[in-house]
């Protein structure tokens, strides 16, 4: 890593000096990763897999799908019944969206728990928030394409959010629709954008990883790692193998849904063709948007609800500056650690409430949870940074492991058994 | 040294893992490729029945089968005689007329030039039969290539007479 990479063969040198692809692949291979990364760090790789799966299956579905209000619903059934393995492509794509969000939520909460958003990784974090926003936009527009009842009314409700904007709101929704209601022009532009956005996400992921490779990975202790010492290991094969192991487990869960419960995460009403005259009695967004939906409905004002919903995402952009604690990992932040889990519970509660009708106790709870969500970021984090007494940080990332009583002796014994006389080589 | 050359348990595990991985990957990729093959709705259209009861001698009709034009010609006596009399040595792609037309009066063939896929024009060319305007291939009254760049005769599809008035193609 530190010394400049020079390819072996003359031709490779010639090529690499003109387009340093070999240097890039060398960098990716040798990229030093902290040796104490746990399985929560494998979700970056899993998310890359999710994006590629969505793009591949999406391009394939695009070969068979017809973006027209007269044919869209029919063409989905054509994919399900006629196209070779069309059912598989569609179920992988539909469940893939859910799995993508599942992985991204774990990835985000990993960052929140271990303080991965703090200096010097603020830019990685902000790019991540933008990716998350684009993912939500992409997923929403993708859900409209089958042109079922949920597609149509989901599109109607979400686009109507923009009508809350004072003065220009109405013009903006008309502009979004390309008409006076959700109709064919809306469908075709959503299709075009649904196709485009994943490639923007792909580009942003490259920036996300680029920005990551400047400071290097955070790690469970949150302290800085000394690069190119025995504290780091090359990305390949060590992290690659760990990522693959986690990915395989993830794929098993993913395909359990695809093969055994492909419609469990969807809504049956979307198998009814869109009807602009009848709204389904109970309309809910996909599960991964529910917490924001709950916030939207918790505020008793049209504009206010929209503002709070978007603020719930944008507050994450400010997070690196709201959390003023110098200690990254919550392993050494006893109070923050508790509030972290309260936040996780609050978001799950909001998700649950988003699926319930906005009345009675559900509405009260939604308001409390919404208030708490913002208090966590805007009040608790700045205060904790000031007043929390953090635990002492270890000297190095090896320290917490090696200083466990009896650990080294146990390891030496095992090494002696394995290496016999060469036990001296064990450090 | 000799100890190191012997395959170890770990080598076996690596090979077995890679093999399973490769098989799994191939199985996962196959649906991605197969989805581009003709789907069930296309395969369902693989036969076409044509009513030819109204066709007079010397007429050609063109019907669509699997998206391709099919020429059905009720040939005149002269055309049949001409097609039958050709010396096979003069042909680029030797084929007897009797092998091409089950019933000599009826010629059924795919109306796609075997050169690069254009549709030949009827009653044209040096043999007053079919002529492809794209690159100048001349076909005779049996649809055999006689002159020009096309390599083979016009293709004969699978067909049968369901009854005297109906031809089933495919």
Name a few traits of the molecule.
heterodimer, A: 427 residues, B: 170 residues, alpha+beta, 4-stranded antiparallel beta sheet, 3-stranded antiparallel beta sheet, 5 helices, 26% strand
Shape of chain B: elongated
| Rg from alpha-carbon coordinates of chain B | 26 Å
Low-confidence stretches of chain A: none
Strand order of the largest sheet of chain A: 1-2
Count of helices of chain A?
16
N-end to C-end Cα span of chain A: 23 Å
Provide the spatial order of strands within the biggest beta sheet of chain B: 5-6-7-8
- Reading the helices and strands of chain B in chain order gives HHHEEEHHEEEEEEE
The total beta strand count of chain A reads: 2
Q: Supply the helix-strand structural class of chain A.
A: mainly alpha
- Give the % helix of chain B: 25-40%
What are the SSEs and their pairings?
The complex is a heterodimer of chains A (427) and B (170).
Chain A: H1 10-18, H2 21-30, E1 32-34, H3 43-64, H4 72-81, H5 86-114, H6 122-144, H7 149-160, H8 169-177, H9 184-213, E2 232-234, H10 235-260, H11 290-298, H12 302-322, H13 334-354, H14 360-387, H15 399-402, H16 407-419
Antiparallel strand pairs in A: 1-2
Helix pairs in contact in A: 3-5, 3-9, 3-10, 4-5, 5-6, 5-10, 6-7, 6-9, 6-12, 11-12, 11-13, 11-14, 12-14, 13-14
Chain B: H1 2-5, H2 9-34, H3 40-43, E1 48-51, E2 60-65, E3 68-74, H4 77-85, H5 97-100, E4 106-110, E5 121-124, E6 129-132, E7 137-139, E8 145-147, E9 159-163, E10 166-169
Antiparallel strand pairs in B: 1-10, 2-3, 3-4, 5-6, 6-7, 7-8, 9-10
């Amino acid at each position: 890593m530190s010394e400049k990479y020079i390819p072996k063969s003359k031709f490779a040198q010639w090529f690499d000096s003109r387009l340093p692809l070999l240097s890039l692949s060398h960098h990716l291979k040798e990229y030093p990763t902290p040796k104490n990364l746990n399985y929560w760090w494998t979700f970056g790789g899993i998310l890359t897999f999710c994006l590629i799966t969505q793009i591949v299956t999406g391009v394939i579905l695009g070969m068979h799908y017809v973006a027209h209000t007269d044919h869209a619903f029919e063409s989905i059934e054509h994919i399900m019944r006629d196209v070779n393995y069309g059912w598989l492509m569609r179920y992988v794509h539909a469940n893939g969206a859910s799995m993508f969000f599942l992985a991204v939520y774990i990835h985000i909460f990993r960052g929140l728990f271990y303080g991965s958003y703090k200096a010097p990784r603020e830019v990685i974090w902000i790019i991540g928030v933008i990716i998350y926003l684009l993912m939500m936009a992409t997923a929403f527009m993708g859900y409209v394409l089958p042109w079922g009842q949920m597609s149509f009314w989901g599109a109607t409700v979400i686009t109507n959010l923009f009508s809350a904007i004072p003065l220009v709101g109405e013009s903006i929704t008309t502009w979004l629709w390309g008409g006076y209601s959700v109709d064919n022009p809306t469908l075709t532009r959503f299709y075009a954008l649904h196709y485009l956005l994943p490639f923007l996400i792909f580009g942003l992921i490259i920036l996300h990883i680029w920005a990551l490779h400047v400071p290097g990975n955070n790690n469970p202790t949150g302290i800085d790692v000394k690069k190119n010492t025995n504290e780091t290991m090359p990305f390949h094969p060590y992290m690659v193998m760990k990522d693959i192991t986690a990915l395989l487990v993830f794929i098993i869960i993913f395909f359990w849904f695809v093969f055994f419960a492909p419609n469990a995460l969807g809504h049956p009403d979307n198998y009814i063709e869109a009807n602009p005259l009848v709204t389904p009695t109970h309309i809910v967004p996909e599960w991964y948007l529910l917490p924001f939906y709950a916030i939207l409905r918790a505020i008793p004002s049209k504009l206010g609800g929209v503002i709070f919903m978007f603020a719930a995402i944008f507050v994450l952009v400010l997070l690196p500056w709201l959390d003023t604690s110098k200690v990254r990992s919550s392993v050494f932040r006893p109070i923050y650690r508790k509030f972290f889990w309260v936040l996780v519970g609050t978001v799950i509660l909001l998700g649950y409430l988003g699926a319930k009708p906005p009345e009675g106790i559900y509405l009260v709870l939604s308001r409390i949870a919404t208030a708490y969500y913002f208090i966590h970021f805007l009040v608790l984090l700045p205060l904790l940074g000031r007043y929390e007494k953090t635990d002492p940080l270890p000297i190095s990332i090896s320290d917490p492991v090696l200083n466990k009583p009896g650990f080294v002796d146990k390891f030496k014994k095992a090494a002696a058994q394995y290496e016999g006389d060469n036990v001296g080589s064990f450090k | 040294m000799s100890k190191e050359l012997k395959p170890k348990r770990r080598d076996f595990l690596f090979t077995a893992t890679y093999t399973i991985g490769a098989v799994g990957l191939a199985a996962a990729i196959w649906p991605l490729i197969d989805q581009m093959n003709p789907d069930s709705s296309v395969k369902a259209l693989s036969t076409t029945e044509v009513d030819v009861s109204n066709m007079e001698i010397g007429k050609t009709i063109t019907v669509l089968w699997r998206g391709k034009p099919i020429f059905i010609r009720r040939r005149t006596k002269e055309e049949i005689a001409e097609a039958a009399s050709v010396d096979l040595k003069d042909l680029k792609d030797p084929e007897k007329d009797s092998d091409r037309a089950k019933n000599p009066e009826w010629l059924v063939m795919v109306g796609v030039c075997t050169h690069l896929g254009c549709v030949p024009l009827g009653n044209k060319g040096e043999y007053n039969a079919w002529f492809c305007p794209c690159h100048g291939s001349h076909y005779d009254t049996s649809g055999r290539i006689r002159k020009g760049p096309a390599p083979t005769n016009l293709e004969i599809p699978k067909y049968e007479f369901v009854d005297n008035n109906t031809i089933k193609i495919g």
